[in-house]
Amino acid sequence: MALTLYVDTARWRAHQKQVIERFPGIVPVCKGNGYGFGHERLAEEATRFGSDVLAVGTTYEAARIKDWFSGDLLVLTPFRRGEEPVPLPDRVIRSVSSVDGVHGLVGARVVIEVMSSMRRHGVTEQELPHLHSAIEDVRLEGFAIHLPLDRPDGSDAVEEVIGWMDRLRSARLPLHTMFVSHLKADELTRLRQQFPQTRFRARIGTRLWLGDEQATEYRGAVLDVTRVAKGDRFGYRQQKVASDGWLVVVAGGTSHGVGLESPKALHGMMPRAKGVARAGLATVNRNLSPFVWGGKQRWFAEPPHMQVSILFVPSDAPEPKVGEELAAHLRHTTTQYDRVMER
Questions:
Q1: If you ran DSSP here, which 8-state letter would residue 197 be given?
Q2: Is residue 234 within 8 Å of residue 242, measured between CB atoms?
Q3: Which residues does 78 contact at the CB level (< 8 Å), separation at least 6?
């Protein structure tokens, strides 16, 4: 019995088609754990819908995916001098975020990242004059800009890109291709209209693979169910049960990513209040699990084990049966399932 990822393949692919149609020239992104589907599966999907390039996170990912995808591979992590060399074919394109990085990739295919309001990495405006001589020794595939998701200051993403296009043009640098991230379809249309000689290519991962939440679902199989009464001791730490009910052992533990949670950016008083409440409950060993039974997320009886979790289901809920499955609200990017089932 397993933690299973169920995929409504027809619905999933219909969503992909919608995104591809809205973003002509899309560059699908396959990085990390392949957004929960795995590198091989996403490479197959990109091949199926005819993509000529696939973006990956690192050179190590490129080395793994090269045997599953025959088109170009764009490595998103910028090149740094002194990095561990990884044998890669000529169809791999390296991202570069510094003039020194360009000089270090003589003869290579490169995309030069510019510094956006993300302030993460990129060539600055002051460095643009130094790029002229540097790009003579590489095969320039274009420039790229990685934009923030939120703009609380009310700034315009399109205007930020236009600003960089103007800077690059003033520096007399080639503007045949611009790779962009986190732009809406209508924003891309505005850019194409203003710069008809430039090909804008949107690098998209989450929206492409995970944009239709109803197309996928995680479920954990019930392995054991034990009736308990208030005061009974259980588990590794022999805690006492707070009330009558069942201890339910379900497939899915820390090795699957169950119990892992990335930090969230909270906006507004209500989300912050809920965060404080969850933290308070955690101090008395009350942690809400991702598993749903009887229409409610159920509490962990104790911290998840390596491959299973033990939940407490109170007696006023239906009794789970061995072999049934509990839906689980899990992050695709941090979850490792046992199997995938098409439906």
A1: T
A2: no
A3: 94, 95, 96, 97, 98, 101, 113, 121
pLDDT by residue for the chain (343 residues), tens only, comes to 899 999 999 999 999 999 999 999 999 999 999 999 999 999 999 999 999 999 999 999 999 999 999 999 999 999 999 999 999 999 999 999 999 999 999 999 999 999 999 999 999 999 999 998 999 999 999 999 999 999 999 999 999 999 999 999 999 999 999 999 999 999 999 999 999 999 999 999 999 999 999 999 999 999 999 999 999 999 998 999 999 999 999 999 999 999 876 555 545 555 544 443 343 333 334 689 999 999 999 999 999 999 999 999 999 999 999 999 999 999 999 999 999 999 8
Tally Cβ neighbours within 10 Å of residue 210: 18
Q: Which residues contact 107 (CB under 8 A, 6 or more apart)?
A: 137, 138, 139
Distance set, CA 131 to CA 76, 107, 200 (Å):
20, 15, 21
Length of the chain: 343
The answer to whether residues 313 and 245 touch, using CB atoms and an 8 Å cutoff, is yes
Instruction: Pull the structure tokens for residue 317.
Output: 């809920």
- State pTM to two decimals: 0.90
Residues 6+ apart with CB under 8 A from 297: 288, 289, 290, 291, 329
Q: Which among 174, 314, 343 is positioned nearest to 245, based on CA atoms?
A: 314
Beta-bridge partners for 299: 288, 312
Report the distance separating Cα 73 and Cα 96, nearest Å. 14
Which residues on neighbouring strands pair with residue 226, listed in sequence order?
Answer: 247
Strands 239-240 and 109-113: unpaired
Residue 36: which of 57, 11, 6 has the closest Cα? 6
Tell me what percent of the chain is helix, strand and coil, each rounded to the nearest 5. 30, 30, 40
